[in-house]
Amino acid sequence: MGEGRPLFTMPLGISIFHKAGYPYDPALLYDQGRLFLYFGYGHCYVAELSTTDMRTLITSRETGRYVSPDLVPPVAPWKMVNGPSIRRIDDQYYLTYYGKRQGNNALCYATAAQPWGPFTFRGVLVFLGNGGVFGHRHGTAYQGNTHGGLFVAAGRFYQSYHRQTGDRFPNRQACLVELKRAPDGYFKTAEFTSQVQAAGGLPWDHTYGAKIACVLVDNQGRCRKGRAPFFWLKDGRQVATNLRNGSQIGVKYLDFTGAGRRQRLHIKLQNSRPSKILVRIDHGSRVVGTVETVSGHDWFTGVTTIPAGRHAVYFEFQGVKGAQLVAFRFGRGDAN
Fold first, then answer.
1. Residues of the chain with pLDDT under 50
2. Cα distance between residue 285 and residue 295, in whole Å
3. What is the pLDDT of residues 75-124, one digit of tens each?
């Protein structure tokens, strides 16, 4: 790239993001005997590599260039940031990447008939916190960069990605979501949830760690740094901390088929004072149970009346101070 000299260097502590062509977060595609390298920060480019040594750039016979023009259309509604990932599916090339728009963060994608483009913007695969979609005006989880890859397993499409977990920018959690493909070959936007599968819900009668929560909001329903709950590693597990009066932790979705009319909810909480946890479902307006807690680190139990079927479940914390949610589980209403 640098006419015999290194064009890009990355000494620690030295900012290099002003380099428009900085070869950031690279991805490789080996296709029909040819090897392509995708990279970029704020832009996305492709270069062809020699298959002999996998490091020498060769001139593209299609474009006559070593490095392509910007692959992501500048008119796309989401600005490409970085993290390109490339796949060939049914003779189409799917380029996924981290994009930003108006404070929201998402994995976007574009398609092309050839590895070198031109690529057409096709939409968003998954939004962090569902900001601006699925009935959410504001994101219900922390915003920040996200990277991942598209793959097929047992005939189903999945997108891996990571989300931000709150307290510090480098704190991230790996996630996976199933994608639904439309008859035209393009993907529908997946909902940001606690589960992988696109339909149904998680079994209601399992023990779940706080780390599966997909809703972490303050008493105003916003996920704002410093005010909303976030995940923290404690004793080898992720707990939800920074719980304040009115904070909500939400899980989407649990399937209560076969749960009966009443359930016992067991919540493992570390708390410094007596408090109350309200249990809400679906859009959050309906209270279906409460759990009373005291000071200490223990399991606390209450009764809920959640109807059969698939529901979003929210835990709203009242009167807490220095509390951390560790885990929860539902059991049958007549169980101890």
1. 2, 7-18, 335-336
2. 28
3. 778 888 999 999 999 999 999 999 998 888 999 999 999 999 999 999 99
What integer pLDDT is reported at residue 17 of this predicted model?
Answer: 46
What is the 3-class SS of the chain, one letter each residue? CCCCCCCCCCCCCCCCCCCCCCCCCCEEEEECCEEEEEECCCCCEEEEECCCCCCCEECCCCCCCCECCCCCCCCCCCEEEEEEEEEEECCEEEEEEEEEECCEEEEEEEEECCCCCCCEEEEEEEEHHHCCCCCCCCCCCCCCCCCCCEEEECCEEEEEEEEECCCCCCCEEEEEEEECECCCCCECCECCCCCCCCCCCEECCCEEEHHHCCEEECCCCCCCCCCCCEEEEECCEEEEEEECCCCEEEEEEEECCCCCCCEEEEEEEEECCCEEEEEEECCCCEEEEEEEECCEEEEEEEEECCCCCEEEEEEEEECCCCEEEEEEEEEECCCC
- Residue-wise pLDDT tens digits, 24-59: 788 999 999 999 999 888 888 899 999 998 888 899
Q: pTM value?
A: 0.89
Q: Which residue type is seen at 239?
A: V
Cα distances from 240 to residues 2, 111, 174, 194, 318, in angstroms, run 48, 38, 16, 14, 15
